Amino acid sequence: MTEPSDQQEAEETLDAKFKAAFRHHPAGVALVTAQTPRGPVGLTLSSVASVSADPAVLVFSVTRATGSAGGVLHAPSMLVHFLNHDQAELAEAFARTGAPRFTPEQQWQELPTGEPYLASARAALRCRIRQTVAVGGSALILADVLDVLPGRVSDALLYHDRRFDRLASAVETQ
After folding, report:
1. Distance of alpha carbon 46 from alpha carbon 8, whole angstroms
2. Domain encompassing residue 105
3. How many other β-carbons are positioned within 10 Å of the β-carbon of residue 145?
4. CB 38 within 8 A of CB 117
5. Beta carbons of 80 and 48 less than 8 angstroms apart
6. Looking at residue 71, which CATH number applies to its domain?
7. How many folded domains does the chain comprise?
8. Does the structure show a pLDDT above 80 at 55?
9. What is the pTM of this model?
10. CA 38, 142, 83, 173: dihedral to nearest 10 degrees?
11. 113 domain-assigned
12. Is residue 53 a part of any domain in this protein?
């Protein structure tokens, strides 16, 4: 049996520490959808962040370029939906392989430009990929925002410590 080198142990420790640090860092939840030749695709993300307001650019990461993520990466445009706290079940469905997606009960619509649209989200940002950067086994996506579709504003859905949670408004906590 081969003993792991000090470098391997240090990297594994850093990897574990890094994952634990982010597991305890709450993040907003978004659902990214796109239309592909094979039909609609979508995935749940907690890595969406603004980059610039002028030009309007956002960033997110995906861990692989296959499946739904691959569909989004190859689509001409996409929608990034910011989710409300009562949409945790929807976020969970788009986070699990094989879960029901784009069902009538989920109340999807299609924009004239073809993207699957969830009008009940906090907001939806229509985007086009500007640049993709490979980082390890992941891809960092910079996307130009083409349009913002306001939606139903409620308490935000967060992801924290491997579960969905709610960010209560400041008025509610006073």
Report:
1. 28
2. 27-173
3. 19
4. no
5. yes
6. 2.30.110.10
7. 1
8. yes
9. 0.85
10. 170
11. yes
12. yes
